[in-house]
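Lay summary. Proteins are chains of building blocks that fold into shapes, and those shapes determine what they do. In this project we predict the shape from the chain. Here is one chain we studied, written as its sequence of building blocks.
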Amino acid sequence: MQLFSRVGWSLVASLACLGAAVNATDGGVIEASLVFPRNETYAPTDSLPVVFAFQNAELAEHFNFHIAYTIRNASNIWGNESVNFSQSLKWANWSSHEPYFSSTLFKDKFMAEGEWQLRWEMSWGACEEDSFLTPPPRVSNLTLGGIDFTIKSGAQVVDLVAGTANDKPCTEKLGLAVNVTGQVKQDSRHNECAVVVSSSTPTPNPCRVSIGSATAASISASWTARACNATFPPDFCPPEEDSSSQRLAVAGVASLAAAFGALAFFLVA
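And here is the predicted shape, written in a compact code that computers can read:
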């Protein structure tokens, strides 16, 4: 499985090449979409990443995005083969990388063959430009989406780089796009709200997003450090009593991954 290759200090050089903070703009189109998995067939895997991407991420600061989703094996309706996840991105460092990736890794959940369904919802708040109130009130929004994929022996292995290449098909239904014109202060505490044009609905283009090897390595490093620094680390981690330096190296690489890759990443065992 290429996504989680061995992490070494050579990763430092590749992480240094990742994008720096982008400059803020007054407006533009922000896109939020599911970029992995896609409507394809994958081999059984002990590690399945779920990745959302935010394009023009600098505009997302005042949206208070929240993602929740469920994945279940539709081929086994009587079984207990399902996972649920919920994540708030209120405190995400949106300006640190473009696009911004929010990732979750599910361990030991997708070894069973079958037709799997991923159903997600993304809640967010914004102020409508054409409101007659001053300042315009924050309006809550909910966007729903979903994708079906298959787990089958002999199929392609899970690989973020190959799986999000530009030649891979995807659909606009995987995401949302919002036209942002600026931001407005909401109250005396200077809470700010993104101003959007509700009468204009751009078409999302999640196919523009691809995950390169450096970003995939950053995800790998973050996951490795989180797993190996847990109270009960998995078997692949070096023994604590004779490899503390290796553990520090893993933690150091993960810190660089977080700094340069700007990834929100979670491990779900």
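What the prediction tells us: The CA atoms of residues 221 and 253 lie 6 Å apart.
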